[in-house]
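User: Could you go from structure to sequence for me? I need the amino acid at each position, not a summary. Structure tokens:
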């Protein structure tokens, strides 16, 4: 059981282990992201900056639009150069500056959330997933987060059906074999699991799960995965597994921080009245000693293979959530990460350099 006032340690670590398995992003082959590009093209056209292109592929017109937009709006001047990957961040920020430009957000021209549920899920299960998503959405709304991109929620008990839906709905081409292997890895052996891919949250339900017991996990799962999706929409739909690990690190930030922020958010969403210090003291007392030097190495995709990765990410996330802006600091960090490298975004958002944070981390 999960008592929001007094956290039982065993359940605590079960929760962290749960999210560790549930984490992360999937790789891509080629970018498309037409809804986001369409948004930027239409926004620029409505400002009279360009003629709306005939199609919404990334083109010279997209680059011209971004140049003129950043000349017009001081706030967007430092955004990273537009690509089909980060067009969603451009589209979102333009809408936040000018309410009229928000009308072009894919989440306004179409659905905010699109549910793709298997027939094998009964109406009660479907409703529970929708409720958990609404719970997560309301939490992030309370932090003034607005999403420009539609989020597809794909849920099933059947791994093959999930893989097919992942392939059909992905903005990035992915083979069925690859999709199947990701789903088998993320979903096997658990009651309920899931992960975030660009514009999608995939939820796998074990048909033998006692449904009443998964309600808390569902809320936590959705808060966690929505956090990943928010990072993507604020900074760009970038892949995790890319040719250059340095590009990945520069654009997405270290993996311990990607996971740590999602974990800090999921705990805050679920347990709003538990002080962050209480989470910190549980992690500190139960895991004998942490090393900042080790944390500094948990940055690339292979970090998840380290058994201690979930605890490290969780403690680091909670420590950052305790600083100046509390949990909103992660949002500030992502806003800056859309503009600059992770180290300088981190330093400005949390008021400490990564090096100093690593030194303090123990
Ligand atoms: Zn995660």
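Assistant: Here is the amino acid at each position, in order:
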């Amino acid at each position: 059981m999960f008592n929001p006032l007094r956290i039982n340690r065993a359940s605590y670590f079960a929760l962290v282990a749960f999210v560790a398995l549930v984490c992360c992003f999937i790789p891509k082959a080629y970018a498309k992201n037409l809804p986001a590009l369409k948004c930027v093209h239409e926004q620029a056209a409505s400002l009279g900056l360009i003629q709306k292109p005939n199609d919404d592929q990334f083109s010279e017109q997209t680059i011209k639009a971004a140049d003129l937009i950043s000349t017009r709006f001081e706030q967007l001047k430092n955004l990273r150069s537009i690509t089909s990957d980060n067009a969603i961040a451009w589209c979102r920020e333009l809408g936040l500056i000018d309410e009229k430009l928000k009308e072009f957000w894919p989440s306004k021209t179409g659905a905010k959330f699109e549910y793709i549920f298997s027939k094998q899920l009964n109406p009660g299960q479907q409703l529970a997933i929708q409720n958990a998503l609404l719970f997560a959405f309301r939490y992030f709304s309370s932090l003034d987060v607005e999403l420009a991109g539609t989020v597809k929620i794909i849920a099933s008990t059947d791994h093959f059906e999930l893989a097919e839906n992942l392939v059909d709905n992905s903005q990035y081409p992915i083979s069925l074999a690859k999709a199947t292997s990701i789903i088998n890895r993320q979903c096997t052996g658990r009651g309920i699991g899931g992960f975030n891919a660009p514009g999608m949250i995939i939820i796998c339900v074990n048909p033998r799960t006692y449904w009443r017991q998964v309600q808390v996990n569902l809320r936590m799962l959705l808060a966690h995965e929505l956090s990943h999706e928010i990072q993507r929409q604020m900074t760009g739909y970038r892949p995790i597994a890319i040719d250059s690990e340095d590009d990945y690190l520069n654009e997405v930030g270290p993996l311990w921080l990607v996971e740590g922020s999602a974990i800090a958010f999921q705990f805050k969403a679920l347990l709003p009245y538990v002080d962050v210090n209480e989470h910190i003291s549980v992690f500190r007392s139960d895991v004998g000693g942490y090393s900042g030097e080790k944390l500094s190495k948990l940055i690339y995709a292979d970090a998840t293979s380290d058994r201690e990765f979930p605890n490290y990410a969780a403690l680091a996330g909670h420590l950052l959530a305790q600083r100046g802006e509390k949990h909103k600091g992660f949002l500030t960090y992502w806003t800056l990460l859309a503009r600059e490298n992770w180290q300088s975004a981190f330093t400005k958002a949390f008021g400490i350099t990564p090096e100093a944070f690593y030194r303090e981390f123990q």
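One structural detail worth keeping in mind: The mean pLDDT is 90.
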